[in-house]
Write a structure and sequence with these properties.
heterodimer; A: mainly beta; three-stranded antiparallel β-sheet; 9 strands; B: mainly beta; about 0% helix; globular
Chain lengths: ~110, ~130
């Protein structure tokens, strides 16, 4: 049981905009910034969004993050087949005094 | 920054897992990162194990702190994980990573993100 809650799956046709939600509480998302990781099968996760809405160098601006209250979202616009992967959200949890993760969302490009 | 895990391909139940993460492209002593371990059970999500900084200060997962020991060897530019009393439930892919960690003045909130990852190593636990 993950501390942060994500939908297990999401999908959309090429070119569409898809959003993935991440829900937490006042100890994690409500107080701290959120990060998103992208993982392809058999490979290590890759940092996609950090500090809720910042993109590391090299990440396309089709990917964007936002946070409001105790929830966060990852939006992918102009969906491409290469975006088919699993996406994890994460945040520091002040009560646990450790980072916590969502269970992951598998994105399918139809 | 590049990271590479090394360790045994198989661990027996009750044994201690020892993994090393070799860092290249940056000095562990640079002070910019918190050197972290994360694992992923087959087909599951991510679980944080802990981090160590360049001075050797550690911070462990509350659920695993009785079994985890992290260490750093700045002369070899590497850091290590020991996880004791291994069981089948510890079968997972183990990743090392370079994390950025800090807090925001004023709000008191924290940021912690895993900026660079190793490729991961699968550690089965079986007799």
């Amino acid at each position: 049981q993950s501390v942060l809650t994500q939908p297990p799956s999401a999908s959309g046709p090429p070119g569409q905009r898809v959003t993935i939600s991440c829900s937490g509480n006042s100890s994690n998302i409500g107080r701290n910034t959120v990060n998103w990781y992208q993982q392809f099968p058999g490979t290590a996760p890759k940092l996609l969004i950090y500090s809720s809405d910042l993109r590391p160098s090299g990440v396309p601006d089709r990917f964007s993050g936002s946070k409001s209250g105790t929830s966060a979202s990852l939006a992918i616009s102009g969906l491409q087949s290469e975006d088919e992967a699993e996406y994890f959200c994460a945040a520091w949890d002040g009560s646990l005094n450790s980072p916590v993760f969502g269970g992951g969302t598998k994105l399918t490009v139809l | 920054v590049r990271l590479q895990e090394s360790g045994p391909g198989l661990v027996k139940p009750s044994q201690t897992l020892s993994l090393t993460c070799i860092v290249s492209g940056d000095s562990i002593s640079s002070g910019g990162y918190y050197w972290s371990w994360i694992r992923q059970h087959p087909g599951k999500g991510l679980e944080w194990l802990g981090y160590i900084d360049d001075s050797g200060s550690t911070h462990y997962s509350p659920s695993l702190k009785s079994r985890v020991i992290l260490s750093v060897d700045t002369s070899k530019n590497q850091f290590s994980l020991k996880l004791s009393s291994m069981t089948a439930a510890d079968t997972a892919v183990y990743y090392c990573a370079a994390a950025v960690f800090g807090h925001y003045f004023g709000s008191g909130g924290h940021y912690y993100y895993l900026e660079h990852w190793g490729q991961g190593t699968l550690v089965p636990v079986s007799s």
